[in-house]
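user: Kindly work through both lines:
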Amino acid sequence: MALLYRSISILIYLIEILIVARIIISFLNIGNRSPLFTLVYELTEPVLGPARELIYKLGINTGMFDFSPLLGILFLRIIDMIARNILL
């Protein structure tokens, strides 16, 4: 069970790193056609899409800022805590 938790934990950590990379890429304004951007986008959108949708459905007006990465990382941390409590 510890090996399963460790695998889940590593996967969550990698997704968090990709979310941070996506934030940096968006600030650097690297073209959307870049293979690096496409890879990072495809790997992080399953987490950030639902977070963005939740913010929209709650009616939270964030203006020009996108808080979905923060919410996505929060969801990932909660999943990690739940997995730790169940598997360890």
Residues 15 and 33 are 21 Å apart (CA to CA). Residues 2-28 form the longest helix (27 residues).
